[in-house]
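Q: For a teaching handout, I want to show students what a protein-ligand complex looks like in token form. Below are the inputs, and the small molecule is 2-OXO-4-methylpentanoic acid. Please produce the holo structure.
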Amino acid sequence: MNLTKHLAVTKTSQSRLTSVNFEELSFGEIFTDHMFVCDFKNGTWQTPEILPYQNISMAPSASALHYGQAVFEGMKAYKDATDQLWLFRPELNFQRINKSSKRLEMPEFPKEFFFQGLETLLELDSEWVKPGLGNSLYVRPFVFASEACVQASPSLEYKFMIICSPVKAYYSGSELNVLIEKKYSRAASGGVGYAKAAGNYAAQFYPTAQAMKKGYQQIIWTDSSTHSYLEEAGTMNIFFRIEDKLITAPIGDTILDGITRKSVIEWARHQGITVEERPVAITEIIEAAKSGTLKEIFGSGTAVVISPIDGFAFEGTDYRLPQTEDSFASQAKNAITSIQYNLVEDPFGWRHKVG
Ligand code: COI
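A: Here is the structure, written as tokens, with 2-OXO-4-methylpentanoic acid included.
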């Protein structure tokens, strides 16, 4: 398939670039000049387009609005000192969006459309990506059911889109304290926890809001059947360091197969750090916290990269975690971001050149 011939590009006549203060960005509020759109109709993906970023029109009966048949991805583009743009392991995002779509009975998106659309969009909006550690462009591919029909059945029409938002840090607060949740669950066995389904995130808002009222910024989710094992933290995968070993929950049907998670594990093993992917019991972490062998907890995700956790609470008791400069969290963050920004060699082959 020669997509170049089929990708219709309409450029904006009025860029908004100069109106943006790149020093004062709140995550995900500002979007670049263009967006990628491709419709699925009559059983096939139609000619993809790049258009000026704009509102879209939908029927009030559009299926995604009623049944949440929608999935998304999160990736980032980085600019190095020579103004070259880079992506980080985009192949994994491509595979995962189709895995998520499959679970929600949505059509898979063609690889050629994804990559040519993504790269053309990034090149067009490259001025929106600022160089320098901490600056990046958050890229949000998503698919939703657009058929005007409220039958509770898979839609016959979909929209695949990519929008991009210049970002700095995800968490603006200085401390990240989390609450181990024993009532609400993020995901159940046999459910959609491994998919980046839109509804997985909506379901977190209420329990997270309750935790925030108690002074915590995020929740650590536990398994839905026994509430005894630690699975994810907020929208991040989670790592525990006991002595010099890293432990994280294994990928399964309740855990998101995070790309930063995978990269932390690969980096750590490359450094000679022991990493165990296995169920992490709350009791093990509490005992380690009490005995002083629990050295760190950190979250990983595209938006946050690596986010050290300062403290956690369980059944009314608060536990503090020491923050040190040479923590595994800061070493992993430094190693991964240095590769992302093309500051060092990439022994893993993670970096993907745009253009
Ligand atoms: C990401 O890290 O890309 C996420 O999915 C978090 C997002 C909900 C902001």
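A: Two things your students might notice: The mean pLDDT is 96. The chain has two domains: 2-167, 177-340.
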